[in-house]
Specification:
four-stranded antiparallel sheet, alpha+beta
Length: 296
């Protein structure tokens, strides 16, 4: 079980020497954040000779953090560790001397980083995602949530997801309160399937029949969710079809089983998608694919 970690204990690590990076890494490891040295270019060190081209089987293929049987700093994110004996071992000493910064494995600490690379991505996050711990980066911000998910780059312009099997640069404690990973972020990493060629169908789609226990205490919760979904579709600047699918998936994940969703709500989503150039067929396909993915 991963440990959900609060990443507050170390000051901003810019302009540090190798020993400073190691000291910062030890502080972070002490509170459960798996860390590793990053070299010039802010990238991990290469595999050792025994592990070149993953000849050893490759720890990432095992989907677990931590070094393989070799003593060196191997396999990128999988080298991240909280073990002070490994971090201070002679086999890691050269890497720390060459390190330009400290990296960490968010998923290994029970965290997810939404990497916002520019002002447009930050503006999108502020209108779409719940607030959480925020860390300033060179060009944008890291939004850190409590919870793990699949990592994926390029989920939308200027936005990457870093959690399991990924590493992020440690850039300081940040500001704000760490909050739980929202469904809106999880939905970003779901790849839209190829359009299905269904049998003849109506250009509209019905809401699921429901039957589950309704967790929504007020109609305002559902209304806000639908309004945010419409906004997400409307603000899409590229990859409209994938955005529509992920938005439908997020709405159905939250509201598709309890019976709150109505045909009128579905119609609003279809209208927003068609205003961005989606055809009625594409809307119906995306809705059907999202329902099939969730087993509705």
């Amino acid at each position: 079980m991963t440990q959900q970690t609060d990443v507050r204990p170390v000051a901003h690590p810019r302009q540090r020497s190798g020993n400073d990076h190691l000291r910062a890494a030890l502080h972070l490891a002490a509170v459960g954040l798996p860390v590793l040295p990053l070299r010039r270019g802010k990238v991990p060190f290469g595999n050792c000779q025994a592990c070149v081209d993953n000849a050893c089987g490759g720890r990432p293929n095992m989907k677990t953090p931590g070094p393989c049987q070799c003593p060196g700093v191997c396999h990128a994110w999988a080298a991240a560790t909280t073990d002070p004996h490994v971090l201070t071992s002679p086999s890691w000493a050269s890497a720390w001397r060459q390190a330009v910064c400290v990296g960490y494995h968010p998923g290994g600490a029970g965290l997810t980083v939404v990497d916002l690379d520019d002002a447009d991505a930050i503006a999108w996050a502020r209108t779409t995602l719940p607030t959480t711990r925020t860390v300033a980066t060179t060009r944008g911000e890291h939004w850190i949530y409590r919870g793990v998910m699949t990592s994926r780059n390029g989920v939308r312009p200027g936005v990457d997801i870093k959690s399991t099997m990924a590493y992020a640069r440690y850039l300081g404690p940040g500001t704000g309160t760490l909050t739980d990973l929202p469904d809106a972020v999880r939905a970003l990493a779901v790849k839209a399937p190829s359009p299905v060629r269904p049998a003849p169908y109506s250009v509209t789609a019905a809401a699921p029949a429901g039957g589950g226990r309704c967790p929504h205490r007020t109609p305002a919760y559902l209304e806000r969710g639908i309004a945010m979904a419409e906004q997400r579709i409307t603000e899409a600047r590229s990859g409209v079809h994938a955005t529509v699918y992920r938005t439908f998936l997020a709405v159905l994940y939250r509201h598709g089983r309890c019976g709150c969703l109505t045909d009128a709500h579905v119609g609003r989503l279809f209208t927003a998608a068609q205003a961005k150039g989606e055809t009625p067929r594409h809307c119906a396909d995306a809705w059907a694919n999202a329902r099939a993915t969730l087993g509705l």
